[in-house]
Amino acid sequence: HPNLLRYFDAGNIQAGPMAGALYIAMELANESLQHRLTRSAPLPHDDVCLLAAEVLSGLDFLHQRKCVHRDIKPENILSGHGSWKLGDFGLLRVIHASAAKTSNPMGTLHYLAPEAYSGEITFALDLWAFGVVLHQCLTGRLPQAKGMQREVDAIIQSPLREIIEGCLEMDSARRWTAPQAGTVRITGSAK
């Protein structure tokens, strides 16, 4: 998929001074979203709209194949060949139903959905984290926490506000899906 970082090969080095070291050969990325945010947060609205469309496309592709990324964060969203791509599939989990359970919640603290703490693995985990990332792109900071709930900053305007609120829905069953969020146009009207 054009919005997933491609991996070409992996293995271990057989000879020389690096013998035994592991390697991964992957598509070259120009920079991470984290680097871009460090340089120039908040990002321009139009740039965030493009990023949202591309990341949602990648998430939809993964979710259609029953894969949950489980570590959506700025460090794992990379710019390459003129588009934004998801990378780092080390925590990816294939689920065989709409949800799975784990006794070991994985992910990055600020991007973990409330249900992750009870070991629930659903596609909604990725959308929660994506909502946090969008908020960060538009404001330069994480959404304020009120208990487990996250508050969307008042400066964020629709349609991105609508997407963020849908992604940060506390009830994972009511949280937006990637296709649902992807139907919101930059102008704020549905596709």
Strand numbers in spatial order across the main sheet: 3-5-6
End-to-end separation in angstroms reads 22 Å
Low-confidence stretches: 187-191
What percent of the residues sit in helical stretches (DSSP H or I)? Answer: 25-40%
Helix/sheet category: alpha+beta
The tally of helices reads 5
The number of distinct β-strands equals 11
Mean pLDDT: 91
Order of helices and strands: EEEHHEEEEEEHEEHH
Using the alpha-carbon principal axes, give the shape: globular
The fraction of residues in strands falls at 15-25%
Question: Keywords, please?
Answer:
191 residues; alpha+beta; three-stranded antiparallel β-sheet; two-stranded antiparallel ribbon; 30% helix; disordered C terminus
Characterise this structure.
The chain has 191 residues and is of the alpha+beta class. The chain is 30% helix and 18% strand. It is built from 5 helices and 11 strands, in the order βββααββββββαββαα. The strands form 5 sheets. It has a 3-stranded antiparallel beta sheet. A hairpin with a 2-residue loop joins β5 and β6. α3 packs across α4. The protein is globular. The C terminus is likely disordered.
